[in-house]
Amino acid sequence: MSVYRWLLERPLYKNSFIFFVGTILAGLAGYLYQLAMSRMLSLSDFGELSSLLGLLALVGVPMAVVSTLTTRQVSMLQVRGSSASVSYLTRILTRGVIIGGGLLLLIFLLIGPWVKEYLHLDSLRPYYILAAALPLSFIMSIWRGVLPGLQRFRIFSTSQIIESGLKLFLAIGFVMVTWGLEGALAAQLIASAIAACFVGWSLRDIFAIPPVPVSLSHLRVAVATVFIWTLALAALQSMDVILVKRFFVPDEAGVYAAFSLLGKIIFFGATSIAGVLLPMATELYETGKHDAHRRLLYLSLALVSGLAGLGLMLYWLAPTLIVRIFLGARYVPFADYLFWFGVMGFCLSVVQILATYFLSIERRWFLFILGLAPLLEVVLVYQFHGSLLAVLKIFVTVLGLLAIALFGCLLLSRARRLAESEI
Length: 423
What we know:
The radius of gyration is 21 Å and the shape is globular. It contains 19 helices and no strands. The protein is an all-alpha fold. The chain has helices spanning about 5-10, 10-40, 45-60, 60-80, 85-110, 110-120, 125-130, 135-150, 155-175, 180-200, 205-210, 220-245, 250-265, 265-285, 290-315, 320-325, 340-360, 365-385, 390-420.
């Protein structure tokens, strides 16, 4: 049996493979974008770029909420065979996010001077370029949420590759013609616009279906749940770069941002698996196949652990070589940090998988633990930020404890179900 046929016969492997390839290629282009910018921009400008992108990740929480919620709702409607309701949901959410995106853009523009002072930005022009992408990003959050819900992972992955690839090549060109930091951000805006056209065209069959209204009253609780889930995960992924930019000089912030980039290579493997886990686990849960969705979780954790283990081994054995190849000689004095950034990426991966699974089976108790972690990071960093290493140890410790706590809760929940079944 060929490897290709073997993958086709196993939905998780097949969809994860498609999602993984798309995410890896898009992620590779994204990493090359940041690596190229780390070499082509000054340390100060690269630190500003990373902090602005981190800010966008936090501001993008509403977009991620809408995208995740859309994926879950479309998955549920697909189980019921209601394509007309999917069309209705897509239409009404698209109209809603156009309005929401416009309002957020207005707020973003009004708070610009405060953001400039807080992050010590040299100019507001890069910030305003970033703000211009907000309405478009809101629309994409809906459309990219629909695609995984329909299990159109191939189109979803292609759109990611188009956007990341164009951003890479446009940014290099713009920076080479001395547009600097502004060119790096303008490339992202243009690439997102082109990718949005592709995704919209790919969903033309959904928009062509006459819509049948579906009740959305049940979404209130779901919105609150997904909002907390998304906000906590976004904060865990980007809060470190923002806090380092706040408390350290520009060159140190640039060093931390570059190493954080390498550390999160491990995390992006989990992202591809989690992207498949959410719609598939939701479908299995909605159809009552509880043993199957638990097996899906254990398989996902095994895949993440295997990928992370390989990455950590390389980071442990050859940190200097990896840093020299990907970041350049000026970062080599900090090569000993690389392994700990990898550990942080692994812990974040486990948290991502467990949190995604709990969301897919409609559990809410874990949100308290998940939301507490980024708050703890902020408090500890404000108290203990004497060096980059001290801050790094804080993030590794908090993420490690969070992963252990979530896994422990999973085991306790499983033990409770087994005890109840024996009564």
